[in-house]
Design brief:
This protein is of the alpha+beta class. The protein folds into two domains: 286 residues, Orthogonal Bundle (Neutral Protease, domain 2), CATH 1.10.390; 144 residues, Sandwich (Jelly Rolls). The chain has eleven helices and 16 strands. The strands form five sheets. The chain has a six-stranded mixed beta sheet with strand order 3-4-5-6-9-8. α1 crosses α2, α2 crosses α3 and α3 crosses α5. It starts with 7 loop residues before the first strand and ends in a 7-residue tail after the last helix.
């Protein structure tokens, strides 16, 4: 084990280190004033090994809920510093804690304020050759003492990217910057409520879904980048996490639907129970008095992706659960590819579905204006099907195998696999979390990412939350726990 490292600045000790006190009968650490200048450990995310380096930073702001430090050599205007401090204190902190619960407070350093470190994150960004970058992250290893993890900062903190090379697209104090900060704050709260307080490790898809919808609670609007991602990969499994770019689209859509239709407090309920994954969702639905479980809401959500918010296609009367409040999923509203591309038109042999995934297909008449389809799932399939007669705007919620369904103009098939097994006979494999550099390499070589970058002219933000949580999971596998 590496020696405990103590760093002095003049006569001041790094603010709020605290030694991870509170566990094993140790005394509560004193709250020390945050120094004007400090050194912080930061992860080098451009290497294949879990290496750290030190950043010297100056304190540039202090608010009711945060300290803001800026890496020496980086430039952020004082006006933007003030905006970040004000936005975190007055919007992000109250809105995200109301929606999800409390962060570690006063936490490992016995200080209720959170450190926000503005730095140039080492992620290998080199546009356009490597068009992906990391906007920000929460590292749960900072919740461990230096005796347990030598590179711990022993404080609640976020790392936010102010690399001038990405500032054109990810400017400090921009809406995207605040979205990222809200996303990462949810991860801190999730860690506190599940990992720390209950010694549980929640499913990644659920943690990331809450992270993706967290900005919506702060009033930043629907995430149409995520809607676009979903519509390009609408059959991506909701619950099988592959550390892929596409995973974020489907979990966002599911989480936004829950916020829109189940209730604003539904995620808070999930984080207050002693369960994880689907079991946690079912418990929260029951305590909220919602009439359907995870399976039932999954099927309603499938249909809601067709109707969107009802702007383009009217929602059947009496069925608000078949729609979103905040998202128009049709191409006309914002430049979206839509759920029914040409490649999914008039298909007669349907693709097998992974567990908890969807398939969207459209059909046109052989002899216009009317046509029909007959859906026959395989004998061992768990699929459900819904069908919309586009001409008559009539929905059949439960299709029957071998039954003919008529339509005029266009028919829309919404295929669903509301089950924990894939519709193929092969086993499914959930991979371990990739390292940050593997996540970046996968994004940089992804045809979908590169096509989007080429079309938009801007690089792609990448999240590494699962990678950072995977590192901490390794600590827990060794029997280590935070000592507060």
């Amino acid at each position: 084990m590496k020696r405990l490292i103590v760093i002095l600045w003049g006569i001041a000790v790094l603010a709020g280190c605290g030694g991870g006190g509170g566990g094993g009968g140790s005394s509560t650490p004193p709250v020390l004033p945050a120094p004007a200048q400090a050194k912080f450990w930061a992860a080098d995310l451009s290497t294949s090994t879990a290496s750290y380096y030190q950043v010297t930073a100056n304190k540039v702001a202090e608010g009711a809920h945060c300290y803001i430090y800026l890496e020496q050599g980086q430039t952020v205007s004082s006006a933007n510093i003030d905006k970040i401090q004000n936005e975190f204190d007055t919007t992000i902190y109250p809105d995200v804690t109301t929606a999800f619960g409390s962060e570690p407070n006063p936490g490992i350093d016995n200080d209720p304020k959170i450190y926000i470190l503005l730095l140039s994150i080492k992620d290998g960004f080199n546009y356009p050759a490597n068009p992906s970058y990391i906007a920000g992250f929460f590292d749960p290893l900072n919740e461990y003492s230096t005796a347990q993890h030598a590179n711990s900062n022993q404080k609640e903190m976020f790392y936010m990217n102010v690399n001038p090379a990405v500032a054109t697209w990810f400017a400090p104090a921009s809406i995207d910057f605040f979205r990222t900060l809200a996303h990462e704050f949810q991860h801190m709260i999730h860690w506190e409520q599940k990992d720390h307080l209950r010694n549980l490790h929640d499913d990644t898809w659920l943690d990331e879904g809450m992270g993706m919808v967290s900005p919506a609670y702060c009033g930043y609007g629907a995430d149409y980048d995520a809607v676009n991602t979903f519509e390009h990969a609408s059959s991506d499994s909701l619950t099988v996490w592959k550390d892929s770019f596409e995973d974020y689209g489907v979990v966002y859509m599911w989480a936004q639907y829950y916020k829109d239709r189940v209730g604003n407090d539904i995620f808070h309920r999930m984080l207050q129970n002693n369960l994880v994954g689907i079991a946690s969702v079912n418990n929260a639905l029951a305590t909220a008095g919602y009439p359907k479980d995870f399976t039932g809401t999954f099927r309603d959500w499938a249909v809601a992706n067709y109707y969107g918010d009802g702007t383009t296609v009217p929602v059947p009367a009496g069925h608000p659960e078949w729609s979103y409040v905040s998202i128009n999923t049709w191409p006309g509203a914002i430049s979206l590819p839509g759920l029914f591309p040409v490649s999914r038109q008039n298909v007669t042999t349907l693709q097998p579905l992974d567990q908890w995934s969807l398939g969207f297909y459209s059909y046109t008449p052989v002899s216009p204006p009317a046509g029909s389809i007959t859906w026959t799932p395989t004998a061992t399939a768990t699929e459900k099907g819904a069908f919309v007669d586009g001409g008559g705007s009539v929905l059949t919620y439960d299709m029957l195998s071998g039954t003919t369904y008529n339509y005029t103009s266009t028919g829309y098939l919404i295929l669903q696999n509301p089950a924990g097994t894939a519709t193929t006979s092969g086993d499914t494999v959930v991979r371990a979390n990739m390292t940050p550099v593997q996540v970046l390499e996968a994004a940089n070589t992804s045809p979908e990412v590169r096509a989007r970058v080429a079309a938009s002219g801007k690089p792609q933000r990448i999240d590494i939350g699962p990678s950072m949580r995977g590192r901490e999971k390794g600590m827990r596998a060794q029997g280590l726990r935070p000592q507060f």
